[in-house]
Prior knowledge:
The structure holds two protein chains of two kinds. By secondary structure, chain A is α/β, with parallel strands linked by helices. Chain A has one domain: Glutaredoxin (3-Layer(aba) Sandwich), CATH 3.40.30.10. Chain A has five helices and nine strands; from the N terminus they run βββαβαβαββββαα. Chain A has helices spanning 50-63, 76-86, 101-105, 144-152, 160-165, and strands at 15-19, 22-25, 33-38, 66-72, 91-94, 109-110, 115-116, 118-123, 129-135. In chain A, strand 3 (33-38), helix 1 and strand 4 form a beta-alpha-beta unit. The longest helix of chain A is centred in the first third of the chain and has 14 residues, at 50-63. Chain A is globular, with a radius of gyration of 15 Å. The model of chain A is unreliable at 161-170 (pLDDT under 50). By secondary structure, chain B is an alpha+beta fold. Chain B has one domain (13-177): Glutaredoxin (3-Layer(aba) Sandwich). Helix content of chain B is 48%, strand content 13%. Chain B has helices at residues 33-49, 69-81, 85-94, 101-110, 115-123, 128-140, 165-177, and strands spanning 13-16, 22-28, 53-59, 148-151, 154-155. A five-stranded mixed sheet of chain B has the order 1-3-2-4-5. In chain B, helix 2 packs parallel to helix 4 (101-110) and helix 4 runs antiparallel to helix 5. Classes of the chains: A alpha/beta, B alpha+beta. The A-B interface holds A 46-50, 52-53, 55-57, 60, 86-89, 138-144, 147 and B 2, 29, 32-34, 62-66, 135-136, 139-146, 157, 159.
Amino acid sequence: MAGTLAKGTRAPGFTLHVTPDQTLSLDEFAGRRVILAFYPADWSPVCGDQMSLYNHVLPEFRRHGAELLGISVDGAWCHQAFARDRKLHFALLSDFEPKGDVAKSYGAYRSAEGVAERALFVIDEKGMIVWSYCSPIAVNPGADGILDALEALPSVEKKHGAAKSTHNVA
Amino acid sequence: MAQLRVPITSLDHILGDDNAIVTIVEYGDYECPHCAAAQPILAQILAHFGSQLRLVYRHFPMVEVHPHAGAAAEAAEFAGTRGLFWQMHQAIFANQHRLSIPLLISLAASLKLSPIDLRDALASDRFAAKVRGDFIGGVRSGVNGTPTFFVNGIRHDSPYGVATLSSAIDQAILAAAA
């Protein structure tokens, strides 16, 4: 299996369904930081699941100028029900057709199970991967690695004027 | 291996001997059923290890899935300022199945705390920053769900959770003696 894409690699572009009738492209986030969180499946049966945890850390991610996108092979309707149930305040993308193509392009697909790895990517304003991590499938990797990676980037304060002039995409 | 990044200070809620060989830090959520289930096991572990062990409790409320967890954590903090943190802590877990704001108020009353003061503290978010601070510190230390335990600063990663805590404590005692 190809390894997870590493720091210094250009983040492969994609356009995926974010709701049954809307799509979202990585291009739309040009000039902003993006956290991609691939995960195996919606509906893991614990209260502290990875997406719920990130939902509670969103203010910290945004303070560092980063938007979070969750990606799994679940369909858009499944994502919609899951997001509603867990009250998620960020987008879940559906890597559903062709199944797992985006996960494969990031080296984050498990062919045997047909699901995405628990793989995290932090992408900078120029579309470069600045940090990545692939967790053992059964271990929720938490958010500490993401926050450490964001903290290592130049402060967003300096670019405040520039950030204000671009319209909000999400 | 994830490590505790926020040192234990006098602002923490600490149960047990200051000179204990082993310190467990628990990140918990008052509305999490797994945290409630861990309570009696933790009590047994504390009784078993006696003065060798102390427990620190920090808040990790998942408020989007547990709507009363934030208020419950603030109520425990409120009781803490009156020296009754652990009493409120136990009362909340014991009543988890019927957690609500009125319940928190009545628990305060049964501990001889002012229900009015608690109501005002909750309404003014007086302890919200402390609770959020615990949460963020937990995130930075690699807390990924509740309950998460740290044994002498090292995250206890076990699929059996609290059930394997005793052996982790035994190992920490051995390591400290070596």
